[in-house]
Amino acid sequence: MTLLGRSNLEVFPLSLGGNVFGWTADRDASFEILDAYTAGGGNFIDTADGYSAWVPGNSGGESEALIGEWLAARKPSGITVATKVSSHPEFRGLSGRNVRAAAEASLKRLGIETIDLYYAHFDDVETPLEETVAAFGQLVADGLVRNIAVSNYSADRIREWISISQDAGIPLPVAIQPHYNLVHRNDVEESVIPVAEEFEVSLVPYYALASGFLTGKYRTTDAAGSSPRAAGASKYATAEGLAVIDELDRIAGEHDASITSVALAWLRAQPTVAAPIASASRVEQVADLLASATLELTADEVQALDAVSEWSPASV
User: Helix %, strand %, coil % for the chain, to 5?
Assistant: First the structure.
């Protein structure tokens, strides 16, 4: 287990992504995946109020509702539930009133009294940041939320959030959720990680497997239409991207591990990263996710993956 930022949340170093629940994983598959993850020691479940509103026939909140149903049925102990606000069709944006209403709706769907980790999902430039920060602070004060977090915020906006919190005596964010993986590195490493290091905030990266590309499954752009997620993965199947897969494959052979496990282990080895997020649409995929949490790469292996995935620094 690892501590999340300055919080007292002890979480498994691989967070189970709930974006597929109600999308590519139906109720039975979702229950099997959650059962397998927790049976393997996992305790950190990530979702959002907007999952999965993009699916025809869905209206948002399906993932939270399935997780809530599972929690009620299994009654597991020690589970950390993270969810997010701003993307549900009925609760868009981060106005104070909306943050409160969305949190109450999430609590009802999840069937819990307190959200362990509550993210501002996407920055809302239409709402004064002071209003958003105050709303999150009030949720903590009222016992609806234990810890505050941000997702998809720029480094400058994270600093601004922290400054407002410090001035107002509101608890600081304990986690940042950025898009970060072996084929998407530059902005996070150049700007977000320095902020996380300065304020002792943990990273909980999403798209940790680049929409499945870093599982090694998609090695050609011809896969684009083969599944709901394949289009997002196949765009990485360039010469440079496939070189990353080849190196992952080599290192996986040294550890008798999967490419998936190695890609997640590399991410976990990065500064301030506490727990990458990865999802599974089938229960058979869970074992590789769990294995990544205990796979320790050598310094040479991390360096080799750093080199093959080297990027162009952002312009100053």
Answer: 45, 15, 40
Torsion angle of alpha carbons 21, 121, 146, 168, nearest 10°? Answer: -170
Does 183 fall in a domain?
yes
The reported pLDDT for the residue numbered 219 is: 77
Residue 114 has pLDDT above 50, yes or no: yes
- Please, which pLDDT band fits residue 9 given cuts at 50, 70 and 90? very high
Distance CA 226, CA 220 (A): 11
CATH assignment of the domain containing 157:
3.20.20.100
- Tally of domains within the chain: 1
Domain of 65 in residue numbering reads as 2-212+268-296
Q: How far is residue 40's CA from residue 44's CA, in Å, rounded to a whole number?
A: 12
Residue 277 to residues 178, 203, 207, 234, 263, Cα–Cα distance (Å): 10, 10, 7, 20, 12
For residue range 260-298, list pLDDT tens digits in order: 999 999 999 999 999 999 999 999 999 999 999 999 999
